Amino acid sequence: MRAWIEKQRYLMDFTLSSLLRRKVKNLSLLLLYTLIVFILASAMFFTDSIKKEASLILHGSPEIIVQKVRAGRHELFPIRQIDRLKTIRGVASVEGRLWGYYFDPDVGANYTFLVPTAGSASVTPHNASTDVVGGEGDESAGAAVPSTEPLYRVNLDTLKSGTAVIGHGMARLRHAGTGDVMAFRAFDGTSMNFRIADTFSSKSELVSADLIVVTEVDFRRLFGIPVDVVTDVVLSVNNPREISTVATKVAKVLPDARPITRDEVLRTYDSIFNWRGGMMLVLLSAAVLAFVIFAWDKASGLSAGEKWEIGVLKAIGWETADIIQMKFWEGAVVSLTAFFTGAIVAYLHVFLLSSVVFEPALKGWSTLYPQFQLTPFVNAAELTTLFVLTVVPYTTATIVPIWRAATLDPDTAMRRVGE
Amino acid sequence: MRRSTMFLFTMMVEVVVLGLLLVHAAFHEESGRATLREKAALIARLKLTDFCLFPEARYTRHLSQADLHSGFQDHPFSLEHFPSGSFTAPPRDLGRSVHESLD
Amino acid sequence: MNVRKVFNSGKPSEFSALNGIDLRISANQVTVLVGPSGCGKTTLLTIIGCMARPSAGRVRLGDREITSLPERFLTEIRRSTFGFIFQQPNLIKGLSALENVMLPAYPLGGRRALLKDKAIRSLDALGLAEKALSKVEWLSGGEAQRVAIVRALINDPSVVIADEPTAHLDRTLSHRFLEIVERFKAEGKTVLITSHDPLVYESRVVDRVVKLRDGRLEAEA
To answer: Which of A48, A117, A331, C123 shows its CA 20 to 30 Å from the CA of B79?
Structure first.
């Protein structure tokens, strides 16, 4: 056993020496390889964390949302129909939501205007029992949790007309803070001023960056929405297992409505950034393919010099197996280094540097992009898969061609010497 | 120093660093739980449904609420105006009818 | 130890390098194979040294028939019995002289400290101590040749095989080489050399000269 370990170390010594001999070529290969692992691992870390975060926090989103659809488009929901929904068995409460978009031409950003529903009314027996702690009825939701700063401080129930609570991303974009006044153009062209009562903490940017929370009266005045309609309605049900049954009943009671269940919301985020994602796949596969070709050429093509070297090694008493093991270490050294370096840098990139490399692509056209720090969720199984997918093929590609050369009689390779 | 010693040492350092990062992840997951609960509470309080990931258009801002016929609902391979279209798949239940068959 | 080699080769092919050679090489002697280039000296040498197999015929080492042994055993024999010195030094570039010398012992997995010690002592014996850590690219022709000799001996072979060892050496260096050969003989090693250099086959160190022509034994001096 001792001799075996010593032998492997000798082979490693040799392989490292021969790798260092062609420093520039091998280091650039290593760098490229590390870069590929880095991109793959970053994408993996980012995707996993955002999915996990979605599954954890979107559990607090409404159980069923009912949209009105007319001619295939989203329409405002008449308040008088709310009572019909209340008659459905299993429905605990029905509430109208008021929200919409506002385009700010000065900065080219979209905001989401939102009216908070009455806080205490939304507490249902079921919701209180989910793992969402803090209680929706409790106004300073964040304050319920000790140790950390609350996400916001004002009481949304007693928000005054003419004031607003805005998201941190929006505050950043407009250089606005608590106490400042922001002007918005109403539907009729008149200007409406809002004094900023509070901003949502930067910790919540992933969900609140572009929000602007205003009172119902202000919302209707800004967008010119009559009092007898709302944007859509949210339903809470008594028994969460009945959500889909209730959704079917909603469709029966209001055939022109489209119910969206919480499951569907969660699934939307489960499929986000998945591997079928178009651009990601196209870009990555091109990069990976280019690397595979390069690596294959590098790892598998034996130059005359290398063949000669194998001949010498065999002539001085190395077995075919020794040469194959030596080449195994060559592949292993390169791919292990690349894997670990790539994975470490990817972790730092995603969780400590907020995925700066991906940001331009993720941001896209949006001017108001949230700055968020993901909670690091690492999926050990996926990390292992990445390990297997990167280290194994490369190492194999290094060994395979050597097999043919190594089984040559040593003098075949030796004969080249005199040339 | 012997080259194999240097390599094995580097590997060991890298494995330890990666291990520490995983510990860091576990630790932060624990401490991040409070913030996650707050965010969940905010979502519940404001009845939010979506992440503010792609605020460039209404159908990317609220992915799960987008209406059935907006451009975004095309397959992600058909890149539309925004890069975000390539990162997301259309909601899985999009084509599913909630209504009884008309026949 | 009595080293005996019986070799029968009858290659019918057009390019047959050797045609029925029956040769016995005795231990503890210096034997030189002489002949014009292309007469099959090197081919014979590679067959004796288990680097290549004959198309027909048998090679015996001591009492063992080694022609039909599988490749793994051949390597084993090659490693433990033969030390090769080639026409060119054939050192692996990018490694130091010391590493090159240690190479043949790598697959054996011995303690590195011991191996290194032995390698340094052997280099010292040929006056190469201060060159041990320099890369082989920086060595002169004679130094490289001596490093190659040290490498051939690192596994303590009983037979040293040298293929045209003086082909790329000047007169002085060739004499130095023959002094080294003499030392081998004194240590009880069997030496087998191919050469068409009179300096070698007329040397007093040589016990026996075997002449080859067109793949056949000609006569013995």
So the answer is: A48
